[in-house]
Each structure stands twice: as C-alpha cells, then as structure tokens.
Amino acid sequence: MALENGKPSLASTAADASVMQSQSLDECLKVELSPAAWPEVQRVLQGLNQGAPVEELAHTPWPNNMPQDLNIQKYAFRAAPEQLRPRRSVRIGLVQNAIVAPTTAPFAEQSKALLRRMHEIADAAGVASVNILCLQEAWTMPFAFCTRERRWCEFAEPVEGGASTRMLQALALRHNMVIVSPILERDETHGETLWNTAVIIGNKGNIIGKHRKNHIPRVGDFNESTYYLEGNTGHPVFQTAFGRIAVNICYGRHHPLNWLAFGLNGAEIVFNPSATVGALSEPMWGVEARCAAIANGYYVGAINRVGTEVFPNAFTSGDGRPAHKDFGHFYGSSYVSAPDASRTPYMPRDEDGLLIADLDLNLCRQIRDQWGFRMTARLELYAELLARASRPDFEPQIIRDPAL
Amino acid sequence: MALENGKPSLASTAADASVMQSQSLDECLKVELSPAAWPEVQRVLQGLNQGAPVEELAHTPWPNNMPQDLNIQKYAFRAAPEQLRPRRSVRIGLVQNAIVAPTTAPFAEQSKALLRRMHEIADAAGVASVNILCLQEAWTMPFAFCTRERRWCEFAEPVEGGASTRMLQALALRHNMVIVSPILERDETHGETLWNTAVIIGNKGNIIGKHRKNHIPRVGDFNESTYYLEGNTGHPVFQTAFGRIAVNICYGRHHPLNWLAFGLNGAEIVFNPSATVGALSEPMWGVEARCAAIANGYYVGAINRVGTEVFPNAFTSGDGRPAHKDFGHFYGSSYVSAPDASRTPYMPRDEDGLLIADLDLNLCRQIRDQWGFRMTARLELYAELLARASRPDFEPQIIRDPAL
Description:
2 copies of one chain form a homodimer.
Chain A: H1 14-17, H2 25-32, H3 37-46, E1 55-56, E2 71-77, E3 89-96, H4 107-127, E4 132-134, H5 163-175, E5 178-187, E6 193-201, E7 207-212, E8 237-240, E9 243-247, H6 256-264, E10 269-274, H7 278-296, E11 299-304, E12 306-315, E13 324-331, E14 335-337, E15 353-360, H8 362-371, H9 379-390, E16 398-400
Parallel strand pairs in A: 2-15, 3-4, 4-5, 9-10, 10-11
Antiparallel strand pairs in A: 1-2, 3-15, 5-6, 6-7, 8-9, 11-14, 12-13
GO biological process, one term (chains A, B): beta-alanine biosynthetic process via 3-ureidopropionate
Family (chains A, B): Belongs to the carbon-nitrogen hydrolase superfamily. BUP family.
Protein name (chains A, B): Beta-ureidopropionase
C-alpha cells in the first residue's frame, strides 16, 4: 500500500495496483491464456460487436508537444448498415488520471497542476479528433471527502465563470469538441451550497447545462453526504452537436432506476465519471455500467480515477481499522460498453489514460429493435408499484405459505 | 453444431459446447492461468465473500441408487456474525438439464422421460438436504416455442392437479423441501389460455401459489408471444418455511424493473429459471442476474438448460438464414450470485447438473446497511417519472444546445 507522505506517485502504488503484473484484467488474460482459449474467453467476457471482438484501432504516434506519459487506447464499435439512415459515428474520449501535486501542497498549487495536466490531455484529445470528451468525477481536486474536513470546500467552483470551466470552454471551442466536466460546484445563488455536478460544455465553447449527482453515498470513506446532498436537476439528456448524452455520476451507477431514467429521456451515450477503490467495488465495476448499456440500449463510458491519494491528517473509516491517511487505490479500469453487450478492454489500473472510442449510434436503435426491451417494459405497472412503495403505509405483495 | 436427427444427445453437442475444452469459463481460467494470476482474476471476476472466494464444499459421494451422471457442485456464502440475530442459513439447489427423449418421440414418452429424470434429480437434492429447489424454465417439455407449431401446447398443465405438480408435491413432502417448478400452464378457468408459470410448492407438499412470467420475448427463435402473453400475477414474494423467495422467469432478467419489484416486495432469494442459447445471450449471462443481486440486496439463482434441441420440422429465425431444425446450444452455466457481488463459478456448459449453495440470508440486510442503496433510492422521483413516461404525451427532459 502506498503511504509515502502526501505523495500520490503512481510508481509507489504499482505494488498494490497490479498483483497480476499486468495493466488490467483483460491484459492479464490475453497474455496468460493459450491461443485456443483466449478467443472464447474474450467472447464471453467482452462480448461481440457485429460478430467480432470490439475492433482495436492503431494509435498514430503523437507530435512531440503532446503528453507522452498518457496511455492511449482506441476502439471502434460498429452497427449494421441501414437502408434509410446514414451511419452516425461519434468519437468519444474518456480521461482517467491521478492527481498531480501532493495533497499537502498549497491548494493553489494543487489546482494549477491539475488544470495544466487537463489542458494537455484535452488538447491531445482534440488532436485525436475526439468529438465528446468526458473527465473523471471531481477532477479539479483530490477526492478528499473521506476526511470530513471542511477546508477542501475551497476547491468548489461556480458553473459559470469557474477557472476550470473557463479553461475547458476555450479548449472546446478550439477543438470543436463537447466536454463533460465533473466538478465540485459552488451554488452561489442558493446560499453558496455545494453540489457534485457535471458541466456540459458545447463544441462552440458555450455552457449547455449541468447535471447534479442524483444519488449520494454513505459508504466507508465515501463521506460525500457530509459535503453535498442529492441533486435537484432530474435526469437531463443533452442534445449536443454529436448526439444525445447524459451523465450518471459515480454512486448513481449502483441505481438501475437512475440509468433507466436517462434512457427514458433519450440518451444515446451515458458517461459515468467515478472515483472508486479496489477493495470496495472492483468486482462490481465490470457489471453495473455494462448491465445498464444492455438494459437501456445506449453506450456507457465508465471512468475511474487512478492512484492512491494520501491526505495530510489521518481519518477513520467506520470499520474498526486504526486511523490512516490514504483512501486505498483508485483502480482506473475505464471502459466503454455497448447496447449489444460488447465492451472494450479495461484501461490500466495505474496509469493516466485516454480511452478513445468510435461509436456508431445507429446500434442503439438496432439493438432496441432486436431485443424489444422498451416495448416489453410495462412501465405503467412499475409506475404504480413505485408510487405505492414510496408511501409509508406500503404493503408488499407477500404470499405466505398457509401451512406455516 | 449438433444436428443429429431429433436426438438431443449431450455428447453430440460437445463440439460447439466447449471451444475451450473446459466445462465452463471459470474452469478454463482456473486451469490455464498461472498460480499468481488466478487469485487476482478470481477476485475481480467472481468477487469475494467475507474476504475470500465463495467457499467450495466437498460433495459426499452419492449412494448407488442416486443419479451418477449429474454434475454436483456445492458452495457456501457466509455473512458476518451478528449480536442480535442468529445465523439464517438456507440450502438452495438449482437444476440444469437436457431433455431426455428426442423431440420426435411421442409426447407421452417425452413427458414421462422428463418426469422420471426430474424425480431422480429432486430425490438427489432431498438426500443432499436441499431446502429450496428450483428447476429450469418449462422443464416439462422441449423449448419448442421456436417452431410456432400449436401442437406443443399439449404439454401445458394446470397448476392444480397437473402430473408434474403432483409428482413434485410428493417429493416436497418426502424431503421437507420447497420446490419451484416452472411449467407451461393451462389456465382452465380462463378459457384454457396458456401462461409461462412458476408453481411454488411448500415443504409440506402444499401449493403456496404461482407466478406468471412478466416479460415475454420476441427475439430470434424466442417466439413465446405466439403462445402466451405477459403475466398478470404482479411480483409476488413467497414466504416459505426457509425464507422469502421470488421467481424472475427468463427474459424478465433483462428488465431491471422486474428485479427491483421483487426486491421492493421483500425477496431474499430470487430464482431466474431460463432457457437461452449461446450465440444470443452468453456475454450478458454473467452480468444481469449478478447486477440484480448487487442492486437489490438479495441472492439470485440463475439457471439455464443444457444441450441442443433438434425439432422434427424446420423453422426460420427471422434472420435470413435458411430454415433449420435446431435452436442452438443451451449453454447451462447456472450460478448463484450474492448481494456482496460474489458469485459461484458457472456450472458446466453441457452437462446436467445440480448446483447446491448454502446462503446465510443475514448477508442481505448487512449489505443493504453497508451500501445504503435502498435508503438512497429516491423511489418517489422515479414513480413520478415512470408515470409520465407511460403517457402518450410524455415529454422527455432534453436540454438542447442553444448553439445548434
């Protein structure tokens, strides 16, 4: 476990980030399995897109002024040709990254270092012709909610005029790129309260809107309800120049209803910017976002940060362990999942990375037509049940064995 | 592909049932991976239960009069000890099996062969002290709905007094065992219509009730809506002598709302008796039932039949392929998934099997307390949305980029 004082070095976390000595689960399987077994394992674990594994595209080497310490992976999801609609391909980019300066550095230095880093990553995504870029949850700061210390609130910014938003607006305009920017929001018009918010920046550099995280965890070190409450922006879908997108922030991925709502409102791509650690959630990571893509007939881009963040003061986790300073390892493993149950391999567990994927959006309707999940959904049945289940006097439908 | 005329022999399907030359995905990984890599891959793919892989129990060899051609696997899921509640352990059994007589045999012969087979399997489960046994979907017949031929309706039975139910009632009483028996139901009091129904038989041999499949597929060869419509029994949870159970039949596993409803009504174990083939759904198989267990805080027992069923007359699949006689390979792979994201390995892809699992039901509430999904579910928000989305004049929440 990386406990170097305050230093979020990636190298120092490699020991616990990779028991497998591979960058990811998929990489490990590909290396270790026999040539006969790998394709069959890949078929079951990663699914097939148009009858084959999701196609990996070659990555053209960067110009020298682009970041060389970024793991770049590139894939393409295909759809069947249609006779009455043209292909609708959009290139998305998912960013996973570690914090740059240690958490002990002055806040201005931490903030500046992260902005500089994201500037070069977003520039790189622009050069790679990404149409829609999504950054990780609360990317402008360390994920300090474990500490319950109020001073980290300083990292909050208003949606309009905040330093991170202004920087990304310029980059969006320069690269003709939609950017989804999840930040800690300072709501100045409502008593300066905080929200966990994704800002949606259009490809003309304008702010299209925002979405506030709907479901807030109270799990282990995820003491986020200390800082902000459940979002009040519903389940907006943003009609951008490159398709209809939505954002399911972090813990919302555990809520099938949250995923469903974005689908009902017409999303074709849902981003899931997250911050989650290995001991807690890794076996769930490949299951939930993927299930949502299948059930709702849209693409999901799942993002998790990387690295171990070590804080200045020790904190407890409500699990009887002694007070400690680190949050555990954010295991990266970002991936894209499609409505046909295919997915990309996972990004590395311990490297900054940019996952680029070309999505043919026609696949969404094709799979809905094929599987018929929406047609057979019986929403009115569930509207009625949820209304009843919300009431204090709810009586569950239980049939008791009369022989008991 | 096994196309031997009418013969559902397991041996004949092995060629396509196992490219991996292992019985299951998990078996293949365990055999092929290095001793260093396997535990880490297992941790991510199968999860951990109380900090370790789901415990495998030794299977005591059967007496000679028990079926020797049944793959038996046995596991135990643990929960943390509590101070105010005793441990609540229940032993469940999942049955996956091929049909016995060829589909060309006289119906009485096919039926008798299946009843005889299930009699010996249920007896074996009783000897193994199973408390709740669940059989596969429409276990009393071949999965003939691909044919659209009406003559297969002969296999339908009323809930009360049907041959399969009477046989299982006697076995339930003999072994003090709850049995979930999914059949094609003939509803004699409503114009002799058909339903896809699970009969719940109590451990005293009484019929506790029934559940009719809520969501009916129109996918490829799954022409089930030709035979029966969406169920009208809601989402009942059955309070049995051994815990609160529910049944999500086959295609209902693709509907997160269906899973949710059984959870809201208080299920601790949800069985998912299925019939599904490899080319269609295998990459989804490990995702959906598992996601449901995690999201709803209950155990799921997912069951799929095995073997390739070849029918007397050729039929088309609505995909441009020539008419053919087989449905593809039912790939077995039954498994149990727990609320803590752990699961058993998959059962074989091509062998009859009985998967036995000891479940500590206390785990359900422990995980709900830990993760808080129910507390943070905001049901009233979704009740309102689903009511709106059900109406013809629904207006999705779409925020359009004003720069477009």
